[in-house]
Amino acid sequence: LPVSLTVDPAFRVGPVRRRTFGSFVEHLGRCVYTGIHDPGHPTADEDGFRGDVIALTRELGISTVRYPGGNFVSGYRWEDGIGPRDQRPTRLDVAWHSSDPNLVGVDEFMRWTKKSGTEAMMAVNLGTRGIQEAMDLLEYCNVPGGTRLSDLRRANGAPDPYRVTMWCLGNEMDGPWQLGQMSAYEYGRLAARTAAGMRMIDPNIELVACGSSGVVMPTFGEWERIVLQEAYEQVDYISAHAYYWEEDGDLGSFLASAVDMDHFVESVTATADSVRAHKKVAKRVHISFDEWNVWYQDRAESRPPTGDDWPVAPVLLEDRYNVADAVVVGNLLISLLRHTDRVHSASLAQLVNAIAPIMTEPGGRSWRQTIFHPFAQASAFASGEVLRVAIEAPTYETAKFGDVPVADAVATWDAETGALALFAVNRSTTDTVEMTVDVRSLPGLTRVVDATSLSNPDHTWQATADDSTSVLPRTNPSVKLDSGTLTVEVPPVSWNTVRLG
Ligand code: AHR
């Protein structure tokens, strides 16, 4: 199938933001315990953190890490997780029907971010708690000293304030599954008052109000409008959460999931701007897409334990990803990048074991899932400015989104280094796409640095602990650059990168 792309520095959307490449560590299943934290592991350090997971986190190119939830945060008492470990209580985690021994808390997590070279994005509990507890946690984290809670942090081994910048005001407060679910108006008021209190402690923080848990929520759109009507002046971001999976064998719609993400971002942007117009203010509220991924919610692994069984770190949400899932993840990254003017932060949910690019065996091996690779490549190669790519492509029909183009792409252009990176997917399940890319408006580009494709004749191939390397991004030998025209053949169901210099 022939596809024509045009890349032009005039199609600038905005800067590549490092925070687009964030992730998420929740006290959920084996994400924390036996995920990032596994004291008996051969690579564990003095805090019990797995060195192999830290190395993989660095390789993945993660920027921010949202913590400690997720649904978990709506019942969390942060004070349980500080001080001597042997005195910390084990608590029910009602969100995931588990027990939490509180061996990892805010101080351990902050040490982990330092070791992994990431930035903490903290969430406060607005489900069962409120303004005071949010302010207490902020005082503990960001006040240098001389007060009860800042001195407690110092006594707990952190003389310098953590100076956490990004704070989420609760989690998915629109969801009936959420502890303390509220109406949009109730939440908007609480978010505004909590934000105002927190800013009185630290005016430098950036605050995220909860948006909708998904576009399918019955309150989608209205929720954002009402929450922002109440909290526009006090917050910097509104969140968006989206998970996709192949439903009933409809691979065509699944591969086009980025169409839905585009719609999500554009709808929330329009809503935020409409509140802005109504309020007659200059400030813009941006989007924190702080949960996104492929998640097979209908699989048994997604169902928490029941009854009297409240296990510590059960196997939960441990999806195994295939090649098609990786192509979708790559396409979702393309969507996030092309909306860099309004999506200022994003978090791949999650980092380890629970719907994650990194898997571990307790005390044993760790490995990369298929979705690891598009994320790592995009994080490593995207730099400078994001350029929207003009695409002329044949379409195919989907049950969910109507006719969609067989290919999707975005580019980044670093004027300082003269590097162009093109990220593209082929959504066709049967045909190779012959891409012709017009790069004549970037005459300095003279050579192909590299071109890779991630694909497999069997798109259901999954990485395992025994074989995680048979399918990787491989050099694409078909690439050619001639007088400002790049050509490359990309296989069916593939994620592709081309770098020019
Ligand atoms: O990421 C898994 C869960 O999905 C999170 O806890 C919740 O916020 C969302 O529903």
UniProtKB/TrEMBL annotation:
The keyword Hydrolase applies. Signal peptide: none annotated. It holds the Pfam family ASD1_dom. The keyword Hydrolase applies. One of its GO terms (molecular function) is alpha-L-arabinofuranosidase activity. It is an enzyme of class 3 (hydrolase). Keywords: Carbohydrate metabolism, Glycosidase, Hydrolase. One of its GO terms (biological process) is polysaccharide catabolic process. It catalyses: Hydrolysis of terminal non-reducing alpha-L-arabinofuranoside residues in alpha-L-arabinosides. Residues 290-494 form the Alpha-L-arabinofuranosidase C-terminal domain. InterPro entries: Alpha-L-AF_C, ASD1_cat, GH, Glyco_hydro_b. Its EC number is 3.2.1.55. Belongs to the glycosyl hydrolase 51 family. Homohexamer; trimer of dimers. This is non-reducing end alpha-L-arabinofuranosidase. It comes from Cellulomonas cellasea DSM 20118. The lineage of its organism: Bacteria, Bacillati, Actinomycetota, Actinomycetes, Micrococcales.
